[in-house]
From TrEMBL:
Pathway stated in the Swiss-Prot or TrEMBL entry: Pyrimidine metabolism; UMP biosynthesis via de novo pathway; (S)-dihydroorotate from bicarbonate: step 2/3
Protein name per its UniProtKB record: Aspartate carbamoyltransferase
InterPro entries, per the entry: Asp/Orn_carbamoyltranf_P-bd (IPR006132), Asp/Orn_carbamoylTrfase (IPR006130), Asp/Orn_carbamoylTrfase_sf (IPR036901), Asp_carbamoyltransf (IPR002082), Asp_carbamoyltransf_Asp/Orn-bd (IPR006131)
Gene, per the UniProt record: pyrB
UniProt GO MF annotations: aspartate carbamoyltransferase activity
Annotated keywords: Pyrimidine biosynthesis, Transferase
Organism: Halobacillus campisalis
Organism lineage: Bacteria, Bacillati, Bacillota, Bacilli, Bacillales
Residue sites binding carbamoyl phosphate per the record: 49-50, 99, 127, 130, 250-251
Length: 293
């Protein structure tokens, strides 16, 4: 694999190889540097975690990073994204980390380029590196994905995280359920949705999603009602299964998807996800540059 565009391309064997490398990186047992490699991080949508953890991952690997953004690059003069990528390839960039708002354009964009593209989020399409760090975080708690009950809950329709994780978890043999208000359900992922009250009682992993206000044309339910109808309240958390964990890709809307006091509760792995993101992204970059994905 030259690019990482979708979780559909990631096999069980890729997953094992990335997780093993991420463990080696964390243990300090792998000495790997890509001196002389140039990467460009192009973020045309806002980001705190993905952009900065990629930057730290790249710098830790000795990679030089050029910053290309939507406000001061020649994208503002009307240059296409494809020509921008061709330009970067021509001046010696080997790796591009790309977040941009359009779903379904990456396959075309990546064709004919002699550099690797990592999809850092394509609109409501996919977010494969988030999925890989989510799966890695789950693997730290459970010995197998087979028959693990994972519920993905919230704004499913607008969530690239839901799409990437749903594909990957089903392929790994997990039982995947979905909980969402009717307006934010996505029939292409499932036609059967469960309530949050059921989700907390059956799930080993409860994966909450951010309410993506910036992608909504209208607000169907107030923020206060959202928490009590569809979010993780203190009362619901008390009914979760023994040993179950809470994930959220963040940023978190505290008091909407999850009660403020639960964000850092014992079951929460939300900040572990962020921390794992650096090692997992280092592993992904190494594997791509080695041609071993
Ligand atoms: N989880 C995630 O993608 O966060 P950012 O938007 O801050 O990168």
């Amino acid at each position: 694999m030259q690019h990482l565009l979708s979780m559909n391309e990631v096999t069980h064997s890729h997953l094992n190889s990335i997780f093993t490398r991420a463990n080696e990186i964390k243990d300090g047992t792998v000495d790997w540097a890509a001196k002389g490699t140039f990467a460009a991080n192009i973020f045309l949508e806002a980001s705190t975690r993905t952009k900065n953890s990629f930057y730290i991952a790249e710098r830790r690997l000795g990679i030089d990073v050029v910053d290309v953004n939507g406000s001061d690059s020649s994208l503002t003069k009307g240059e296409s994204l494809k020509d921008t990528l061709k330009a970067l390839e021509s001046i010696g960039v080997q790796l591009v980390v790309l977040r941009q708002p359009e779903q379904g354009v990456l396959q075309d964009l990546s064709e004919g380029l002699n550099l690797s593209i990592i999809n850092a989020g394509d609109g409501t399409g996919e977010h494969p590196t988030q999925s890989l760090l989510d799966l890695y975080t789950i693997s730290q708690e459970f010995s197998s994905f087979k028959d693990l009950h994972v519920t993905i809950a919230g704004d499913i329709k607008h969530s690239r995280v839901a799409r990437s994780n749903a594909h990957a978890l089903k392929k790994l043999g997990a039982k995947v359920s979905f909980a969402a208000p009717v307006e934010w359900q996505d029939e292409s992922l499932s036609s059967e949705y469960i309530s949050m009250d059921e989700a907390v009682e059956v799930s080993d992993v409860l994966m909450l999603l951010r309410v993506q206000c910036e992608r909504h044309e209208e607000q169907h339910v107030s923020n206060k009602d959202y928490l009590s109808l569809y979010g993780l309240t203190v009362e619901r958390e008390a009914r979760m299964k023994r040993g179950s964990i809470i994930l959220h890709p963040a940023p978190v809307n505290r008091g909407i998807e999850i009660d403020d006091v639960l964000v850092e509760c014992e079951r929460s792995r939300i900040f572990d996800q962020m921390s794992n993101g650096v090692a997992v992204r280092m592993a992904i970059i190494q594997k791509l540059l080695e041609g071993d994905l």
